[in-house]
Design a protein that fits this description.
A hairpin with a 2-residue loop joins strand 1 and strand 2. A two-stranded antiparallel sheet has the order 1-2. It has three helices and two strands. It is about 40% helix and about 10% strand. It has a domain of about 45 residues. The protein is an alpha+beta fold.
Length: about 80
């Protein structure tokens, strides 16, 4: 089997794929999946950096707690 027929060839720079493998449709689908997956995980990691957003803070002035959880039961709520 010659080096042009083999899907993988090794040289001094590491393991490389042949041009026919890289140009195939399934490799393009795999590359798109990896790219979208990477973007999704980066977005999730960045989203964890920011504090949690509560929509009730924007659309209502009432407290999230309806009763006090203090050791002083007659204390103010919130």
């Amino acid at each position: 089997m010659s080096s042009t027929q083999m899907p993988m060839a090794a040289d001094g720079r590491g393991l490389l794929l042949s041009e026919s493998v890289i140009a195939s449709p399934w490799f393009g689908v795999l590359a798109a999946f990896v790219a979208l997956n990477t973007i999704m995980y980066v977005a999730l990691a960045v989203a964890q950096i920011f504090p949690k957003v509560y929509p009730s803070d924007w659309f209502g002035s009432r407290s999230r707690r309806q009763e006090t959880r203090s050791i002083y039961p007659d204390g103010p709520v919130g």
